[in-house]
Amino acid sequence: MQAMCWVITVIAVNLYLVVFTPYWPITVLILTWLAFDWKTPERGGRRFTCVRQWCLWKQYCDYFPLKLLKTHDLSPSLNYIVACHPHGIMSHSWFGHFATEMSGFSKTFPGMTPYILTLGAFFWVPFLREYVMSIGACSVSQSSIDFLLTRRGTGNMLMVVVGGLAECKYGLPGSTTLFLKSRTGLVRTALQHGVALIPAYSFGETELYNQYIFTPGGFINRFQKWFQSMVHIYPCAFYGRGFTENSLGFLPYARPITTIVGKPLPLPKIENPSKKTVAKYHAIYVDALRQLFDQYKTKFGFSEAQELVVT
User: Which residue spans traverse the membrane (predicted)?
Assistant: First the structure.
């Protein structure tokens, strides 16, 4: 939704420049650059270490605060796909850990390069696309993933927040529900390239915002479901804190988040896996994710009886 707002804004500004002002050459330059640079987000992007190391990100990571832990070392001679859960509302932990260097990524995973894979719509917008690429983000398209796994050497970690925007409706305090049952594409891709799939879970990501839950079957609830069926985005009514401590707003609550990056799950290389094969390894991955969650859940406020719910 953020990307769509940017797209609409940029279109409106450029139409204004063309129709009502003499500054139409600006629009021409922007469109020319977009045409020339269109494929870059699918060819490894254009990161700048200086942007990833902005001192602002230190304040960002300390605000919650964020903590990154690993259960196993990773080899720089291999590539990996990291499946990140949960999405929450804004995926703050995944941004802080893998789009910046301020939570200690390079020290935790020496020799590895993180690539955050995100919606292609972010790369349609001038200036925003430059910023998004500068922090190490690339398109989540199939061609982008194929390029990173075959033509960028080794030591790459592809970070995918699997649940996506469809999982936002489960971004409630205390929630352990994931939108994962139908998300088999990542498993298929990992099989096609023979790369290990790594489960990762952020304890605390769903604690950052509250949501207003509308009456099931009511007008607003029906609108939410209709909207989701049309654009695959669930328009949840979320809120957090304001600029003062006890006010309401859209800032996340300052609550600690610990991200656990689990054990790599080796997968065989199968260039054209069948649906049955994909389903088999998807089930194996879900079991590995459940084990990771169960191993650490009591350390982060969940009871022993709490289970990971996969929908």
Answer: 6-36, 108-125
